[in-house]
Amino acid sequence: MLNFAAAQQPLPPEPRTPSLLVGAAWYPEQWPESRWEADLVLMEQAHIHLVRIGEFAWSTMEPSEGNFQLDWLQHAIRAAEKHHIVVVLGTPGAAPPAWLTQKYPETLRTKEDGRKDEHGNRQQFDWSSPKYREFVVRVTERMAQRFGHDPDVIGWQVDNEYATESYGDSTRAQFQQWLQAKYKTLDNLNRRWTTAYWSETYQSWDQIPIEETYGNPGLLLNWKEFVSDTWRSYQRVHLDAIHKYAEPRQKITTNMMGWFDAYDHYTVAQDLDFASWDDYVGRGHLDLARNGAAHDLTRGFLRKNFWVMETQPGFVNWSPNNTALDKGEVRAMAWHAIGHGAEAVEYWQWRSALNGQEQYHGVLVGADGTPVPLYAEVQQLGADFEKAAPTLTGTTVHSDIAILQDYPSRWAIDWQRHNKSFDPVSDAIVPWYAALRNQTHSVDMIADTAPLAPYKLVVAPALNLLTPAAVANLVGYVRGGGHLVLTQRSGMKDADNSLYTQRQPGPITELLGARVEQWYALEDAVPVEGQWGSSKSPKWAEQLGVTAKDTEVLMRYGKSNGWLDDQPAAVTHRVGAGRITYIGAALEPLAMNSAARWMLSTSGVTLVMPDLPQGVDLAVRSGGGKSVYILTNYDAAAQTIALPHAMTDVLTGSTASSITLPQYGIAVLR
Ligand code: GAL
């Protein structure tokens, strides 16, 4: 029988779009308005519900100084609305118009060699220029005034891929003022940078240069911090301009770039509503560990779900060889992002511009205006997202394990690698991530000052530089009962990028009950053996020394350079209910997996689906009483997976307790 009381309740408004979005970067300014409808029909047919527009369109929005032309944007938004497509508006600062930089040359960036950049490419602006900021604020305010209440504008992207700094005199003067505000006196700066070395001592602030790669380590670190703060303040003026007019419902982000490290992403991300990144493979195929870790890194900036603002429709144009992803791999890659906490996946770009620098880049619609073969795969993805959205709404990744990632530590190692081939991301962060994630199917990647209490295990690969706040956080975690694992090169430098006066790991040496006696850059891998089996340490080895009676040696080096022979390579020390472990050797994958297994069992982490067949990736998202398993088979052969209990695949509607997936096959299970 009908319940009339209930039937009279007003229904909640229909959401304008599903909560998982497939999108495309669309450039209506490059096409006659008469063509837009055809593009939007094709988008709608592919279940594309999101477009990002405007981020390079300054010369169309403001063709001459103060002459704002935003009607075309309004038309584009209304045309998209008719096809149930919502909009993210890009502010256009990454591509200033020619009139601007010609009339105000101080807005052009100065390159490292002292020459001015010029018009004809993009990112030619000076991010520290007050004049440039006046112009970006003005155009952004105009956009926000016009579209800040538009129901179809759901968000904003500030600029595009912050990347290039400027090295001119005015930037240098700002850097010197920034240093003065931080260090107060030159005596303080000189002492903390040990400038007596090579007579670097400064007598006045204006003597301090900009150094990017080979300079005093204190100066190098401070320049990077200044660069990060300056991106933050450049972003701030945009945020203020948008907030002045726009409804808070319109969320603001900027598109970051995974492992890119030109600035500290934690500094910049803290002011955003959500994080997003541009996920490109370039040449070859999806690397699950490296790419998965970059997703988790991005999720860690604000410790919540994020967007993939751009990704490749098959191939790019900027690799040495721009090979295409396999048939099925583009869809699998999008699901890989969702598994790690993405809520939107957007293809760059919709259709090839007829001219311009990127004519060969992958697209969904060719220069002729008709779909390319990949279009059908994205259409299938769009249908997937519509089916799975209700199930995934309100879910995210919850992990018992955190990996710590720190920009100053990466910079500090990269400036003085000591072994040129030692890369902190490829040789420390990603291998440890891979070993842990392969067994647990979820890992958080966070800053060393983020709250650690929720985690049973915290692993800090190559955490070279430890600030007092990080030290307090790590020590508090161990004393509170957590298990902290530090790996090679950790705990060497302080907040000024100076060497600690204790051996590694610096201020936490006592807690460890051991220390690094000496580090060695290696030409040939050295043998290492013990609790985690036999392995070899390539590139780098640290000879450990035990200083407390109850510190346990887990691994020892075999015969190598004499110095390392039979010396401790990994140690562990219980601290009350907590534990701290230091691993001075790198390990080959087998031993690394066994080390990860040991870490997980020592820390009491329970494993979900521990025995997946080769090439099968599992991601788990949960929330609101739901647990959703996303399974993908990357192996060339079909794989059969036994499920913990009968589950329903929301993509096919079928329920079973085992599932067979072909290569790039996906199941989204409840
Ligand atoms: C991104 C950029 C896009 C486009 C794309 C090509 O880095 O944000 O505008 O150039 O690369 O892969």
Report on this model:
The protein has 670 residues and is α/β, with parallel strands linked by helices. Helices cover 32% and strands 21% of the residues. The chain has 18 helices and 25 strands. Strand 7 (276-279), helix 11 (288-302) and strand 8 form a beta-alpha-beta unit. The longest helix has 29 residues, at 217-245. It is globular and about 80 Å long. Mean pLDDT is 96; it is low at 1-13. Residues 160-161, 278, 280, 310, 316, 318, 348, 358, 361 line the site of beta-D-galactopyranose (GAL). Beta-D-galactopyranose is lined by residues 160-161, 278, 280, 310, 316, 318, 348, 358, 361.
Mean pLDDT value: 96
Per DSSP E runs of 2 or more residues, the count of β-strands stands at: 25
> What would you report as the Rg, rounded to the nearest angstrom?
27 Å
Small ligands present: beta-D-galactopyranose
* DSSP strand content: 15-25%
Major β-sheet strand ordering: 5-4-3-2-1-9-8-7-6
Helical fraction equals: 25-40%
Q: Helical segment tally?
A: 18
Query: How is the biggest beta sheet arranged?
Result: 9 strands, parallel
Topology diagram in text:
Layout: H1 4-8, E1 21-25, H2 33-45, E2 50-53, H3 58-61, H4 71-81, E3 86-90, H5 98-103, H6 130-147, E4 153-157, H7 169-183, H8 186-192, H9 217-245, E5 251-253, E6 255-256, H10 265-269, E7 276-279, H11 288-302, E8 306-311, H12 329-339, E9 342-347, H13 374-392, E10 401-404, H14 407-415, H15 424-440, E11 444-446, E12 457-460, H16 468-479, E13 483-487, H17 509-512, E14 514-521, E15 526-530, E16 533-537, E17 540-546, E18 552-557, E19 568-575, E20 578-583, H18 589-602, E21 616-623, E22 626-633, E23 639-648, E24 655-661, E25 666-669
Parallel strand pairs: 1-2, 1-9, 2-3, 3-4, 4-5, 6-7, 7-8, 8-9, 10-11, 10-12, 12-13, 13-20
Antiparallel strand pairs: 14-17, 15-16, 15-18, 18-19, 19-20, 21-22, 22-25, 23-24
Helix pairs in contact: 2-4, 6-9, 9-14, 11-15, 15-18
